[in-house]
Write a structure and sequence with these properties.
The protein is mainly beta and about 200 residues long. It is about 0% helix and about 45% strand.
């Protein structure tokens, strides 16, 4: 854990004592309020080798790991996406043994509870953006390259009816948001193309 000086940007401390409950790579991470969530991935450790269904939650205020275990979907996977929005941390999609996952595992930071939902299409290597601290936009993914866009209203806990799609189906894309718009850029697609898709809520 690196602790940074917000004024100078310098490193105040580097603590190597913090450990994940299960050593793994290709995991996903996101934060909300003072909680950082690390989930899923792939473990090379002999007694836990394979796709992981584990999560670890770290509180930056108490500077402690306070929860770990199995995500509610119980779907072990890597190459999921994670996003923080509306007081929740979400882990979506991913690669499972023999295919792709549609699972969305959701941790509510205030209530300290888990729920889960499903994407419209199972896929890995997708991207996600948070709009207005209420709506999560999941876009793209693979295999094959997906143009699918799913929009989740966290306040109502429902998927919004939407017929929007990316201009080009692709995975490994990046996402960001500003005001009421989500932006999806790049990704693995036809060589030479560098698509950018912008979706804005009216």
């Amino acid at each position: 854990v690196f602790v940074l000086n917000a004024t100078s940007g310098g490193i105040l401390s580097h603590d190597v004592d913090y450990k994940l409950s299960v050593g793994r790579k290709k995991l996903s991470a996101a934060a909300q309020q003072d909680v950082i969530g690390f989930g899923l991935g792939y473990s090379d450790v002999s007694n836990t080798e394979g796709y992981s269904d584990q999560f670890d939650l770290y509180n930056t205020t108490s500077k402690r790991w306070f929860a770990s275990g199995v995500v509610p979907s119980k779907e072990a996977r890597q190459y999921a996406t994670a996003v923080g929005c509306g007081g929740k941390i979400l882990f979506a999609g991913g690669q499972v043994a023999g295919g792709r996952s549609a699972a969305v595992d959701i941790y509510d930071v205030s209530r300290k509870t888990w729920t889960n939902m499903m994407l419209s299409v199972a896929r890995s290597n997708l991207a996600a953006a948070c709009i207005l601290d209420r709506y999560v936009v999941f876009a793209g993914g693979q295999i094959p390259g997906r143009a699918t866009v799913d929009v989740l209203d966290l306040e109502k806990n429902v998927w919004m009816n939407s017929e929007i799609a990316l201009n080009t189906g692709r995975g490994w894309l990046s996402a960001g948001s500003v005001d009421n718009c989500a932006v999806f850029a790049g990704g693995q697609t036809v060589p030479g193309k560098s698509d950018i898709d912008v979706f804005c809520l009216a």
